[in-house]
Each structure stands twice: as C-alpha cells, then as structure tokens.
Input
Amino acid sequence: MGLVPVIEMYRHGLEIVSDVCIACRGDVRSIYLIARRPLEEVRTLAVDLGSRTSVQLARIILWKRYGVRPELIPMEPDLTRMLEEADAALVIGDPALAIDPSEVDLPCLDLGREWAELTGLPMVFAVWAGRGVAAWPELAGILEASRQYGLGELDAIIKTEAERRGFGEELVHQYLTRNVWFHLGPEEQQGLAQYLSLVRELDAAAPLTEARVQNDDAAGSR
Output
C-alpha cells in the first residue's frame, strides 16, 4: 500500500484505502503546459515522465480542448531545452512552482484550471491505495489522523518547506491551502471517474506507440 498516482492505481487494479488524496479544485499551480506556438498547432510535447498522471492529463486537455494529439518526448525538466526540442513542454512540481506565469510570454496553461473548465470537476492526482485493503480496517483511521495532524501543523510545514525549497512563504502557503486539496469527497470521486474514462477513450483512439515513450515504466507520483 502507498500513496499512488491514480493512473497507476487504475493500471494495476488497486483499491482505494481512504479519503486522503492529493487533488485540486481549479488552479493547481504546480503543473504547467507551456507552448512556443498556438496550442492548436502543437505536434510534439516534451514531458517529465516523473508524472504519469499529469502526462495523461496533458494529453486529454490537448485532445479535448485543442484538437491535437502530439508525440511525447521524455526530457529532464528544463523549460528552455524542452522548448528547443518540442512545440510545447509539460513542467511539474518544483520547476513549475518556480515559474511565474505572468512573466511567461508564451501560451501557459495551468492544467488544474483547464481540467475544471473542461469537466466542471476536481482533478485527483494521487490516492492511498493497495491490494487486500479489507485486511487493514484501521488504516483509514490512521491516514485520517495523519492528515489532520498535518493540517494542524501547516504553519510549521510552510516555513520548513519554503526554506528547504527556496520559495517564498506566501507562495507555499497559497499552494498548500488554496491549490492542493486533500479530501476525496463525492465531487473528487466523480472527477477521478471522469479522468479514468477519458484515459480509456484516449488510449483507444491514440495509444502511446511512439518509440520515445515506450521506456516510461518507472514514473513517479504527481
């Protein structure tokens, strides 16, 4: 059991353990798709394959909102180099948080906002999941207590993470209190079901057969 990207939960047939999750209800601030040409003309997308869930989200957004299905090019998360190699780049995590979208003179999509505008639902990125969860009836309570403890210690967490990662406390505070959501409620469950339905639809219409993305099995969590 562990905190699992929802795309891996789906592909490995895992069961959700509790209502503790990582989600967003609009702007997520840590997942940007930045393009050097109009989005309707994007043919190649540089991606950090440390995030399989976000890669599939980017594919869904580009397909459903902009009518394109680009080839994926796995790269290190360096925006300048990514845009030298591809029409657009998917930047996630700390590299995305380091970007001020107001200073980017290119099309810059927050994929949390794009998902909300496409579906009207939250986007769920990761859940606690595993196999044989019926054998662990106390686990949900443990995870709930851990979440409540963390939320109660947010001020200390914000200060520590801002110093450790080199971000301003205001940015980290906004990220952890406004951008990220930790409860898998009914709307999050609907959003998760919609995401997985669109993944199935996308895979059926445009499976990942490109040679440059066949080596992506060791992907991470966001």
